[in-house]
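Illustration 12: TolC family protein.
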Amino acid sequence: MYKDIVFVLCGCLLSLGGFAQSSSIESTLKQVEQNNQELKALSEYVESKRLELKSDNNLPAPQIGAYYLPFGEHSTGDYTEFQISQSFEFPTVYSARGSLIDQQSNQLALDYQTKRQKILAEAKSYCLNLIYLNKRLDTESIRVKQARQVFEQVQELYEKEQVGILELNKAKVAWMQEQFKVLQIESDIKNALLQLTNLNGGNEISFYLDEYSTTLLLTGKDSIWQEKQVQDPEMTQLKQLEVIAQQTLKLAKNKSLPDLIAGYNNQGVAGERFSGIYAGVTIPLWSNRNKVKAAQSQLNFQQTVTSSRTLQAHASFEKQFSDYQIMLSKFQEYEATLSGLNSDELLLQAYQLGELSFLEYYMELQFYRKAYDAMLDMQYQLYISQNQILKHQL
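Figure caption equivalent — predicted structure in token form:
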């Protein structure tokens, strides 16, 4: 029976029958994306900040003024004057600021995507953990049945006075230990489902899979890195900050152009009226001083930061990918070795024939079971690592 379990494990790793299971994980992630409260709140925040940014490019309020001068010594009628004017920056400033606002809005969208990716990666980790726990539960359930079978056999031998009370107690303790493992795994499953429910905005999620759906084999390292630079929001944010710095420099240069004022003026006394166009210019001799230099320095800084952090990210990716390949190679060796064993049945036969004492049987059985459990754990860790490497695909 143990051999059958191992063969099932090996056959499912690369099976094509996992497509339906894959859609189950994907549907769970879609639910989380739709119901997660943090993402809902962040979406509202991003929209409010986007509108706030757009308001920064509005024209200032028009100005209306009037004079009425009835006092003083004058032979003509009272003097009156009315004026309405609108001030505005040089037209190219609005264009440059509009482009900057668009880039800042894109940055806000990337902030949202970064948070979304983090939450979905966490949710997928819980899904992978549930698959691992379900595999463990299936295995431990079989072991409980085997331990009970051995206990019942030892109990029959004890009743026939062929074994002592110590051997009976050992068999009972072994059975109880396996039962406790099942209870512990069931508790871990409930906790993982609770974490998924929290990520899903408190909406309960029904998730049960006992096999992984995707292959452990990855595509070429270079292709993954190129894909990561384009799709990973944490990577694209660096480039976006550089674009924002470039647009800020362009805006600073345009703000060196004069501000303009245009309007209508009407004035006169005693039936004599004069009216016409009002115009003015504000020359930014001092208001924009050093701002272009500051924007240029910020751009140089951001370009350096982008280069530095990209190199760091690449070095981290190289290590992560290398560690993954080493663990995958080790796992494949474990898999190849254990797939040819039939340890449970062989040990049980040896025990039943009297070739092994119960203690010898139990110790040998634990050795092979630990190896199998280590393989399950290694497989789980590989999928968790793969989830991090391919996080940009979420």
